[in-house]
Amino acid sequence: MPYTAEHKERTRAKIVESARKLFNRHGFEQVSIEAIMSEAGLTRGGFYNHFESKDDLYAAAVASFSSCNPFRKDVEASPTRDARELARRLVNLYLSDQVLEDVDNHCPLYALPGDVARAGLSPQKAYTDLIRNLTLVYQHALKEFSDGEQRAQAIVSLCVGGMVLARTTDDATLRHTLRDAARRQALQLLGAN
Questions:
Q1: Are residues 125 and 59 in contact, defined by beta-carbon separation less than 8 angstroms?
Q2: Contact predicate 20/65, CB 8 Å
Q3: How far out from the chain centre does Cα 87 lie?
Q4: Which of the residues in the chain have pLDDT under 70?
Q5: Theoretical Cys-Cys bridge with 123: which of 59, 74, 84, 135, CB 3.0 to 4.6 Å?
Q6: 3-state secondary structure the chain
Q7: Which residues in 69-97 are b (16+ Cβ under 10 Å) and which e?
Q8: pTM for the full model?
């Protein structure tokens, strides 16, 4: 008896979730299809029923951040109609200790940039979509500014760059001050000190 479409969708989601966590922890090159399938509680044989290649899975893992990211839950927990307030909360959360410490749920924008830069077109497209989507959140909050798009891109750069640098140092003080400097500048660009 063949599996239902719902079962296939759940299995695919389980594979993507396992891959996303392993890629965040170890990077693209260090993670094998066998390790991903094992983490998902499945055998390698079923991999190609869901994905054409490891690159295809990588793109799906990067894209999945839109629906599984920790920001979404926290931001939705206290909804607001004020786009500026939402953007401010997102900056504060993105650069928080809580998010820095949650390695399994790191945003691919700061967790995987080196891997994506060397990846194929499909992962790069998924990564580009994440950049554009995050930029749109800030751009929406900056509609009244003639340079709103440029400010939004600068905010994304500050947030992602602050987290990239914070992840690379073993100095706890520097981890904090890098993110704090990025946060202050991002909030200033939002006009929301």
A1: yes
A2: yes
A3: 16
A4: 1, 66-81, 192-193
A5: 59
A6: CCCCHHHHHHHHHHHHHHHHHHHHHHCCCCCCHHHHHHHCCCCHHHHHHCCCCHHHHHHHHHHCHHHHCHHHHHHHHCCCCCHHHHHHHHHHHHCCHHHHHCHHHCCHHHHCHHHHHHCCHHHHHHHHHHHHHHHHHHHHHCCCCCCHHHHHHHHHHHHHHHHHHHHHCCCHHHHHHHHHHHHHHHHHHHCCC
A7: bbbeebbeeeeeeebbebbbbbbebbbbe
A8: 0.79
CA dihedral for 64, 68, 74, 76, sign (positive or negative):
positive
Interval 86-100: pLDDT, tens: 899 899 999 999 989
- Residue type at position 65: F
Rounded (10°) CA dihedral 32, 38, 43, 44: 0
What CA–CA distance (Å, rounded) separates 156 from 172?
Answer: 23
CA–CA separation, 192 and 46 (whole Å): 50
